[in-house]
Design brief:
By secondary structure, this protein is α+β, with helices and mostly antiparallel strands. It is built from seven helices and ten strands. Helices cover 23% and strands 21% of the residues. The structure holds zinc ion.
Length: 269
């Protein structure tokens, strides 16, 4: 499932084949959720930058327009050398762009739009996006006051709120709260500033470790099991042998995995 590190990696992978290149051909297929964009108008444009912002990807063109996409749960970006067969059907291509040497394809996007840079700057959601934990120089202390505005929220919901901090998805939520020994249903105001800051540092470090290609890993034990709790409900906790639990959390009903022994609720609850 795409999280902030997925988008960062995608940007790193497709930037070298797109940036500075002219688009020689393009196609866009509509899906039931996402209308097609005007792909013909991309031909002749040069790509000036490729940037991940949280879970969004922004591809800027030299005519002041930007391709803005969001992968959702099922989207992906692939880069192919010309002539290489695509690994998904062409009808699933929300957008495909060809340069002199490559084809870059966005399959099954949840959002795809072609907008002016000005419109994008006014995009309410992007404007409200919190500091991006994938960025090497992210200002972690600046996230504290943002979290404090959601003091009554369970921490497992707050860290997924992309307006407070950008990049954490379901996998990192479960894994980092386990590693920090924080109960996912603790309210933000039950955690001290230092505890939150330590949590953010840990999460930032783990996400940066995953910035290169390869399988997302938060547990480096050398036994092939990449996660501490994520996807392991009913199995023994690696630390205490209690059973890892799973429960839906928040309005969106996202799954949270945790160990009830290692991640005790705050005293008195
Ligand atoms: Zn445990």
């Amino acid at each position: 499932m795409p999280e902030g590190d997925t988008l960062y990696r995608i940007a790193e992978n497709i930037r070298p084949v797109l940036q500075g290149q002219a688009i020689t051909a393009a196609l866009s297929n509509p899906s039931p959720q996402v209308p097609a964009i005007d792909a013909a108008s991309l031909v002749g444009c040069t790509i000036t930058s490729v940037e991940a912002r949280g879970k969004h990807l922004l591809i800027s063109l030299d005519d002041d327009r930007v391709v803005h996409s969001h992968l959702g749960m099922h989207g992906s970006w692939h880069a192919y050398t010309i002539g290489e067969p695509w690994r998904k059907p062409a009808r699933q291509a929300g957008l495909a762009m060809r340069t002199a040497t490559h084809e870059v394809v966005n399959f099954n996007p949840k959002l795809l739009e072609l907008v002016t840079a000005t419109t994008l700057r006014r995009n309410d959601y992007l404007q409200r996006l919190g500091p991006d934990l994938m960025l090497p120089d992210v200002d972690l202390p600046s996230i504290l006051p943002r979290l404090r505005t959601h003091n009554a929220a369970p921490v497992g919901e707050a860290v997924m709120n992309q307006t407070l901090l950008a990049g954490v998805g379901n996998v990192y939520k479960s894994e980092t709260l386990f590693l920090a020994r924080i109960n996912p249903w603790s309210r933000v105001d039950e955690l001290g500033d230092q505890q939150l800051l330590d949590y953010l540092q840990l999460t930032h470090r783990l996400m940066r470790l995953n910035r290169k290609s390869g399988k997302r890993t938060t547990r480096f034990a050398g036994d092939g099991v990449r996660f501490w709790v994520y996807g392991r409900s009913g199995q023994a906790c690696f630390e205490c042998a209690d059973k890892v639990r799973i429960r839906r959390q928040g309005d969106a009903g996202r799954t949270t995995y945790w160990c009830p022994t290692c991640q005790q609720p705050p005293a008195g609850r």
